Amino acid sequence: MEPLTILDNQQNQQFQIFLEDEMAYLEYRIKEGDLYLMHTEVPDKLGGKGIASALAAHAFNYARANHMNIKAYCPFVVSWLKKHPEQKDIVIPPPPKS
Questions:
Q1: Which domains does the chain have, with CATH numbers?
Q2: How far apart are CA 38 and CA 62, in angstroms?
Q3: Which of 15, 24, 27, 57 could cross-link with 39 by S-S, CB 3.0 to 4.6 Å?
Q4: Which alpha helices (DSSP H) does the chain contain, by range?
Q5: Parallel, antiparallel, or unpaired for β 70-72 and 34-41?
């Protein structure tokens, strides 16, 4: 498979991949200088190609390049982090349970 081109659609606050007439995206928010990862969406047609992982990796690279920390709300990104513990140094931990 050819390298994926990931676009930063700042107006819609999404990292996007267009492939096979479909769009996959990772929705984000930027708040107080931190990157909040909200939701990943990959059409069924594009599933199993590593696209969601590529979006997650891109988000972490973007955060590092822009000196941001990450708060992961997206369940996919949370599970991706378990496979990539080296990325956890910029993750904002959840608040302690009371």
A1: 7-90 (3.40.630.30)
A2: 15
A3: 27
A4: 51-65, 75-83
A5: parallel
